[in-house]
Specification:
Layout (H helix, E strand, L loop, with lengths): L3 H11 L4 H19 L2 H5 L2 H5 L4 E10 L5 E12 L5 E7 L5 H17 L6 E6 L8 H15 L8 E5 L5 H15 L19 H19 L8 E4 L4 H12 L3 E7 L2 E4 L7 H12 L6 H7 L2 E4 L10 E4 L8 H9 L4 E4 L7 H10 L2 E3 L1 H4 L1 H15 L6 H23 L8 H20 L2
Parallel strand pairs: 3-4, 3-5, 6-7, 6-10, 10-11, 11-12
Antiparallel strand pairs: 1-2, 2-4, 7-8, 8-9
Helix pairs in contact: 1-2, 2-5, 2-17, 5-17, 6-7, 8-9, 8-15, 8-16, 9-10, 12-13, 15-16, 16-17
The chain binds (2Z)-2-iminopentanedioic acid.
The site of (2Z)-2-iminopentanedioic acid has 12 residues, from β3 and α15.
Length: 445
């Protein structure tokens, strides 16, 4: 029998100072401990101890030359967390806040998320503390070439398939893939999220945001309500926020906020025209990491250095970065009548935020279920590349929708409580965990 406090303190001792990793482990362990304690095979095979330990971590130096001819040095990593279900799969994050702690938490989350997708995907994550902010296109190219020159030794279409994450979009994936091709000369689709001209799946750019809205629709359906007319606040302005705004608008909801490190935009009319939604792509590709220009262009309100959670809405989607929504934010959302917190970024909510949500009785959907549409379509991109074909957008979109519905059903199956309500955190963690754990048992140690 495992005791929660003892397990958590062991992880703390083995991973000193790694707060994010510990937070992610704690959340999953809290949910799955009863399942483990109920299953002698899991106990005998030490699944809990093994699943919290990455298979391996690769750490490397990345040297590149900036536009002034000065040599810059960054650190790069790939955390290959767990490949029981399939090749390591997960994004690369380029952001100054990236540490090994961050990538371990992300690789851990990815393992369970990928299990939920129903596709044969293991979990991994990588990236660098490189900041794309203010960098020229040539600097980004030189950094990507240097990064891939190292990473190339550790990845492959059947071993480890990286993709994008914060700071890594189609442009960066293109540069990284180009360097892979120069060195290996193998068009195996070793990265996903590629531009469509050389193997990228249609709908992959939209997939995370679309998937989040499909999942939210299912959550609402479970309550017997429709998404039409719902007022929504969104944080972030990158790829995930963009897809979410696009799909929310298409489904008849109204998104009134987006945000960046500089503050948030409140657009009372809704971010609901093609021009406004496409402008988000421009903001991202400008490498300035700001949203204020949106206010000037479209006559919306810009609120400096504040988060969007003070705006009264029905549903809140955090789409930016880990721990972006805290306990105070939840109190504010609740006070203003918000009923649903849809965590769309990876571990977007602090532990206090989740505790507060539980206190209020608001409905909470966890990131590893909500945002799994991105990696799911990456899995579909791998299938297309392996069979040397492209699927139509409608085909990919319909598979994505099907997968998100299945993830919702898995949450309901494992998370339904005695009173009939659904604990989506428990549901996602247990469903994701069981499949990985069963595979580990079947494969021995
Ligand atoms: O967090 C994530 O799931 C991603 N950044 C996407 C990973 C992928 O392999 O598409």
């Amino acid at each position: 029998m495992y005791d929660l406090e003892k397990v958590v303190s062991d992880i703390e001792r083995k991973n000193p100072g790694q707060k994010e990793f510990l937070q992610a482990c704690k959340e999953v362990i809290e949910s799955v401990l009863p399942v483990i304690n109920d299953n002698p095979l899991y106990i005998k095979n030490k699944i809990l101890e093994r699943i919290c330990e990455p298979d391996r971590i690769i750490e490397f130096r990345v040297c590149w030359e900036d536009d002034n001819g000065e040599i810059q040095i960054n650190r790069g990593w790939r955390v290959q967390f767990n490949n029981s279900l399939g090749p390591y799969k997960g994004g690369l994050r380029f952001h100054p806040s990236v540490t090994l702690d961050t990538l371990k938490f992300l690789g851990f989350e990815q393992t369970f998320k990928n299990s939920l997708t129903t596709l044969p995907l293991g979990g991994g994550k990588g990236g660098s503390d490189f900041s794309p902010k203010g960098k020229s296109d040539s600097e980004i190219l030189r950094f990507c070439k240097a990064f891939m020159s190292e990473l190339v030794n550790y990845i492959g279409p059947d071993t480890d398939v990286p993709a994008g994450d914060i700071g890594v979009g189609g442009r960066e994936i293109g540069y990284l893939y180009g360097q892979y091709l120069r060195i290996k000369r193998q068009n195996t689709g070793v990265l996903t999220g590629k531009p469509h001209t050389f193997g990228g799946s249609l709908i992959r750019p939209e997939a995370t945001g679309y998937g989040a809205m499909y999942f939210a629709e299912e959550v609402l359906k479970q309550q017997g309500v429709s998404i039409v007319g719902k007022k929504i606040s969104i944080s972030g302005f990158g790829n995930v926020a963009w897809g979410a705004v696009k799909k929310a608008t298409e489904l008849g909801a109204k998104v009134v906020t987006i945000s960046g490190p500089d503050g948030y935009i409140y657009d009372e009319e809704g971010i609901n025209t093609e021009e406004k939604i496409n402008y988000m792509l421009y903001l991202r590709s400008s490498n300035q990491d700001v949203v204020e220009p949106y206010a000037k262009k479209f006559g919306a309100k810009f609120v400096k250095a504040r988060k969007p959670w003070e705006v009264p809405v029905d549903m809140a989607f955090c789409c930016a970065i880990q721990n972006e929504l805290n306990g105070e934010d939840v109190k504010e959302l609740y006070k203003n009548g918000c009923k649903y917190v849809i965590e769309t970024s990876n571990m977007g909510c602090t532990s206090e935020a989740i505790a507060e949500v539980k206190k209020t009785g608001m409905i909470f959907a966890p990131g590893k279920a909500v945002n799994a549409g991105g990696v799911a379509v990456s899995g579909l991109e791998m299938s297309q590349n392996a069979s040397h074909i492209y699927w139509r957008a409608e085909e990919v979109d319909s598979q994505l929708k099907h997968i998100m519905k299945s993830i919702h059903s898995q949450c309901v199956q494992e998370g339904t409580q005695e009173d009939g309500s659904v604990d989506y955190i428990a549901g996602a963690n247990i469903a994701g965990f069981k499949k990985v754990a069963d595979a580990m048992v079947a494969q021995g140690y």
